[in-house]
Amino acid sequence: MSGPSRAPTMADVAATAGVSLSTASLAFSGNKPVSAATRERVLSAAAQLGYTGPNPLARNLRQGRSGVVGIAVGPLSTAFRDPAALPMLDAVSQVLEREGLGLLLMGEGDEHAALPLDAVIYDICGRETWDAYADLAARDVPVVVVEGPSWPGSTFIDIEHHAGATALARHLHDLGHRRVATVTLAPSHPQREREAGLREVFPDAAVVGACESDLTAAQELVGPWLDHGPGATAVVCQSDVQAAGVVLEARRRGLDVPGDLSVAGFDGVATPWLDLELTTVVQPLAEKGRAVARAVLDRISGTDTADVLLPVELRVGGSTGPARS
């Protein structure tokens, strides 16, 4: 009884077509001129044998590349729940896919960092140390960092956190608000910059507490603060999801938003939990993803690439109004 048949190879195609292995390879790659008749003979032989083409991973490895870019996003469950993360991830994947590169999602650990990756995108804003970074740097693997930390040798893609938060604070000040509180993210570059921007206008803003960009976490955080009778007339949150949680929890306690309490967020994402549009700072999520992908492609090709700082825009919605008397 014969054993399992092996998959056809490029050498089999070359032999069947009656050409050299190098000519058969060129016929598939299209990198150098091959006559139309020769190319047709090679492709016909491949079809006859059921050969679909060279293995792209093997080809890339021979060229010193794997064709894979890693992206560290922290806990995967959290990343896929954050509406600010998905548009950026989608834009990154679209650009890289057009260039024939795959995207490997990486969690908080460093177990994937030893893989033969062409580059790594670091997108865990709440974590500013990563054991894998030193190893990646030692292996000269290009690293593109999204919104911090700014590690030596990495390319830094950021948005105007400080300016956006300051514009939002000035909007509230113009509405007559003087007593303002804030819900922050965990300590990170975006958290520090957004809080610093708020304090440009409200240096004494009270901190309700910190939580991740999660609806339930924000509700649980702000609930006890609301129960004690907030002295503030406005709450500035560092994400729209947090702001949506504050609106829902305030309403559950009979407070009118914005009549009794103005609430603002940051990011500019959809908030389907609400029947009003949030006042927020809109960041260009898709453009940020494209900027990240372009930086990755430049770093892989060895092209010098500068850090990127993207603008943001204040969008006034129905969640903020004049300060109550």
Automatic annotation (TrEMBL):
Keyword annotations: DNA-binding, Transcription, Transcription regulation
Protein name: DNA-binding LacI/PurR family transcriptional regulator
Highest taxon of source: Bacteria
Classification of source organism: Bacteria, Bacillati, Actinomycetota, Actinomycetes, Propionibacteriales
Record InterPro entries: HTH_LacI (IPR000843), LacI/GalR-like_sensor (IPR046335), Lambda_DNA-bd_dom_sf (IPR010982), Peripla_BP_I (IPR028082)
CDD domains assigned to the protein according to its UniProt record, in alphabetical order: HTH_LacI (cd01392)
Coiled coil regions, renumbered to chain: none
Presence of keyword NADP: no
A molecular function (GO) term: DNA-binding transcription factor activity
SMART domains registered for this protein in UniProt: HTH_LACI
Ranges of residues in domain HTH lacI-type: 8-63
Keyword DNA-binding listed: yes
Organism, scientific name: Nocardioides cavernae
Pfam families the UniProt entry points to: LacI (PF00356), Peripla_BP_3 (PF13377)
